[in-house]
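debug: dumping io for the single-chain case to check the tokenizer round-trip. Nothing else runs in this session.
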Amino acid sequence: MEGAGHRAILMVGFLLSMTFVIGHAEGQAIDVLERHSLFEIQGLDGAEYKFSMELEKDTTTIVDIICSSCSVQVEINGTTTQGASQIHELSEDSSGLLIIQSNEKQPIIVQVLVNIQHHGHSVRPAPTDEVQHEIMNVCDIQDTCFQSSDQSLRNIQYFNQEVVNLYAGKTFEDLNDYLIFEVQEGMTIEWNWHFLTGDITTSVFFQDETETQILSPMTIKPSHDLSNLGLVHETMYLQTQESGRLILKFQGTNPIDYFAFTFIMYTKMEASTMPSELIHQNSIVGHGQQQIAFDWPSAHALRIQNGAHEFDFDMTYFAGIDIQENQTTIQPFEAVTVFPYPNTTAGKLNLQSLQTFSFHVSIIDYTDATGIRDAQGYLPSANLSSISSEWVLIQINEAYASQLTLSVFDTSDTYLFYIEGWEESIHFIEFKIEGNIGPLVAQIWDIDQSTYETISTHNGVKTSSEIKVGQQVGRGYHILQVRHQNPQNATPTEYGASVPSIHYTITSTYNLIDEGEEPWFPPDDNAKMWGEIVRWFLGFVLIVPALVLAISWKRNKRLTNEILSKKDRLRWLKTQLDVGTSTRSSTRKTLLRSLAAFQSLTWHEGTTSWGTPSIQHTTDGLEIMVWELDQRLSKDGTGIPLLIGLYAKEGTWDLAVIRIEAPEGAAYSIVNCTPKFLFRGEEVFIDTLTKGQLTYLQIDVQGTAKRLEVELNGRLDGQPFAAKIPHCIEMEEE
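debug: decoded output
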């Protein structure tokens, strides 16, 4: 049924071709053996070119020459005719000679069609009629069907070779001409016009066994223009959606018009698999509709760099369910990046083009740090040791490159790091973040390894070139996070849009603060055997630690009461040394035991018991007191011993540092600190002071300056703060 028009064929617009064959002849006759010869002569001034032809009866011979200044003559059976374009209807076998005289140096385009015979149908058949089909040129090997010079389907063989399946004939103004071809579902058909003497109106019909579909008619015009080498090479593309037959109708506008064209079929391209080694660039070519399935590694995007023709594609993502994207058109030479949805493991690229698609595909890796996966954006809530394989684990003292891939809404990277050490060991770890750090912040979480709750957290300090974040931690797993400081404004676009990523690097430094307790190793088999024998005996022995604990508690209680009874304990210790009732070593042990006992007293009780401080600083939020001790109470008897007390009344201090300064002369250096705080040069690193915390420490300093000052630096409730005692300790000359 004509006008049904709901399936079968898609038609594209015309594409002008400029393909030709280059040949050269001079001063001798060259046989024109092919039915269709198309070539160029590089004509010389005064040169003559001859071509011989063997012509059959009841055929048509067409000669078409394009040049700026030349003479053309054709001799057939002794009859000579002049003119650049000639048509000869032959009634008997003949010999022909084509002579071209060049009047100047110039290119000359030569097109000769000989022995043209064509008998089309004058009436369009009905869908049920059986008719003789034309033989179509079929391309089954896809890689040989493309002309690489312009990435088109054009498989027409020029270069002075015979053109396969050339259809040529003549039309009459009052008589239609039909050609009929058998086609299969999914074919791409290339229709190339080579020669016209006038405008020809063409129509395309598709028939199955029951109905006829009519496509809109189109008019093809001849072209003689030196800018395109004078070729009438109009190209059309069609695609069939089911099997049947294709009918071409021709109708001229002149009483008689001559034409020549080729008609080539490309079989349907089946689905294929993209190479798995996408780390290298791969070239994909094809035409029509094609599906390409591939494995999609985690945190990798596809980069598609198009060739010379636009095509449509959409992407199917496999992540437990199919997620279908809307169709996308990629323009010539355009490049697009396709990002996977979360948990995607495979993809399928669905391509469609009426001509060819030719593009390069490569992979973009946006994994973080270790190159295995994209770092999680949230904090873990489970046992870190059991889920560590699911997270990005970075090693201390290693350098890593990472990025926030804003195209996939990646605005935070969370890393685990593991500290080796003994029980009760203390470690200082510092990370440095460099790169495009402008919008970034960094933070460390110190994690309790038994409860996996947060003990403390520290924020990084940013300069113009880096972010530093440091923390004292115990052994085990802890957390570092690098994130965008304004994630809402960082991703205003749709998922997968082209947004520049933020690249940064991570480096770390490490120091051991306290080695902790050496681990106990399980006994061997003999020890287990003897342990089984004496376990009841050991049960009785276990009561001994309880007795020791009770004795220790009683001794500490007695020491606390003794401290409260003596209001000037430092003077009393000095007196013990002066009269010789105790040695320097035992007196120092008494002093250090007192440091621990004083933690159980109030600030007022403790400072009263120590005695009058040498210098002090008192504000509403902080008190600092410093006592100068007898030199005999230093660790090795050579340093200058000082006792320092700190009381944080309000707020929380972090990154706290006690600094010993010499306002005149060479700087003092700290040579010992009890309890064990990290010290270097003239500074002792206290780290954190919380509200209501009492801290006593005894340090030994060495130096020759006559005066000594003490100050506390750090951050109070997140803000830089310093507290300096306004008075100096006058040091006695030795």
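debug: round-trip ok. Confidence is low (pLDDT under 50) at residues 1-28, 156-163, 224-231.
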